[in-house]
Amino acid sequence: MWTLPEPMLAAPTPDPVLPAGWAAEIKFDGWRALLSWSQGNLVLRSRQGTPLAEAFPEVRAAAGQLPDRTALDGELIVWEGGRLAFERLQGRLQRRGPAAARLAEEWPAHFVAFDVLRLEGTDTTGWPYERRRAALEGLFAERGLSGTWALCPSTTEQSTVDDWLTNWTPVGIEGVVFKRLRSPYAPGARGWKKHKVRHTEDALVGAYTGPAAAPRTLLLGRYDTAGRLRYIGRTTTLPQTAGRTLAPLLTTAAAPHPWTGWTFSAGWGTRETLHVTLVAPELVVEVGVDVARDSGGRWRHAARWHRARPDVAPGEVPRFEE
Length: 322
Fold this sequence. Notes:
Blueprint: E1 10-12, E2 22-27, E3 31-38, E4 41-46, H1 57-62, E5 70-80, E6 83-84, H2 87-90, H3 97-106, E7 109-119, E8 122-123, H4 129-143, E9 149-151, E10 154-155, H5 158-168, E11 175-180, E12 192-196, E13 200-209, E14 217-223, E15 229-234, H6 240-246, E16 277-278, E17 284-288, E18 304-308
Parallel strand pairs: 1-12, 7-9
Antiparallel strand pairs: 2-10, 2-11, 3-4, 3-5, 5-6, 5-7, 7-8, 11-12, 13-14, 13-16, 13-17, 14-15, 17-18
């Protein structure tokens, strides 16, 4: 029986130049998702395998437009007011039934397809990218896919990449992904490259300050190669809306916690310590940071809040030494 493979991944690159023999695609600000439609059954899952079909009834309703035994790789996004609204996705994981239907009506999600993994029963993962891309474009043209479905733009022209990075970022485009034209789809491998317009990094939430209903700041960590959760820094004060959205994603820590008994300074040049609530180090968040580090490898300046990433597995966060 055919099953969805693990997603192919991308390694970060600071270089926005499109290499020869590669194509570029827009990196949308959304959730990576893999989709399979077979014999009336929809499988929709996140990058780490979380089932999403019940949370996105609008995708389920549109799945019948696809050919039977077809699977796609793509991104779930939501548009609001002419720009991508990542925050409208964050509450979807916990919604089912009428609550999910209400959110689908208010802020409908779109599935932006950028790869085809199976086409009418044929496994296409071994095909080179350029052949898979042609098949994906043919699928959209032949089926007239629209509405919930969107085709991710692709180019082999540097001028187009420059235009995306210059003129499309105000609506929430994160950057670009580079894919080798002749490469197959390699599940789990970091064979693609991604270039982000802004520098952000991922970390795990190990504790927070402020009330449980709306945390004020987050204390962040990363595991080292010995498996210890190392404290790496604290965020700036969260916007109230972000704190309230974040609260249901945090789970109060069960003993023992890696940071049990620790004290955390309120800031440089002060002896004041923070009152913190420890949480299970399971939620990944994305924050903006600079290059400054202290002698222990921690971020010297407070990290700027960007977004929660419940769609990213803790194991995907870089190690402390990295």
